[in-house]
Amino acid sequence: MKVIHQRYVAYSDAHYAGNLVDGHESLFAGYSSVEFLAPVRGGDVIEVEARLVSRGKRSRAVAFELRVICRSLDETGRAEVLAEPIVATRALGTGVVPADAVKKAS
């Protein structure tokens, strides 16, 4: 099972020199690995894939890959669709389903 989500990264999301975008917190219990492979800049269009790796009684392991699919050319809003997406981040995280949610599902 997997989900793919695409979104535009607004220049207002960029907070660092070079129009770099900061990372965001998640509601996961934790990440067992995170690889930052390339920058995400204001004006980029990104695609994030989340794939269920394993499922326990209350835990879920999810693999993530964030790809830049359009790269900003400048601050005018012009961008180019990349022939090959740039893999910017890979991560593996674990989410935990609350015990009361497991009871309700039973």
Could you list some keywords that capture this structure?
106 residues; mainly beta; Thiol Ester Dehydrase, Chain A; 7 strands; 7% helix
Description:
This protein has one helix spanning 99-105, and strands at 2-8, 14-16, 20-21, 30-36, 45-55, 59-72, 79-96. A hairpin with a 3-residue loop joins strand 5 and strand 6. The chain is elongated, with a radius of gyration of 16 Å. With 106 residues, it is mostly beta strands. It contains one helix and seven strands; from the N terminus they run E-E-E-E-E-E-E-H. Helices cover 7% and strands 58% of the residues. The strands form two sheets. The chain has a five-stranded antiparallel β-sheet with strand order 1-5-6-7-4, with no helix packed on it. Strands 2-3 form a two-stranded antiparallel sheet. The model has no long low-confidence stretch (mean pLDDT 83). The chain has one domain (2-105): Thiol Ester Dehydrase, Chain A, CATH 3.10.129.
**CATH class label:** Alpha Beta
**Mean pLDDT value:** 83
Q: What count of helical segments does DSSP give? A: 1
The tally of strands reads 7
How are the strands of the biggest sheet laid out side by side?
Answer: 1-5-6-7-4
Q: What is the end-to-end distance?
A: 21 Å
Tally of distinct domains = 1
Quick structural gist:
Helix content is 7%, strand content 58%.
SSE layout and pairing:
Elements: E1 2-8, E2 14-16, E3 20-21, E4 30-36, E5 45-55, E6 59-72, E7 79-96, H1 99-105
Antiparallel strand pairs: 1-5, 2-3, 4-7, 5-6, 6-7
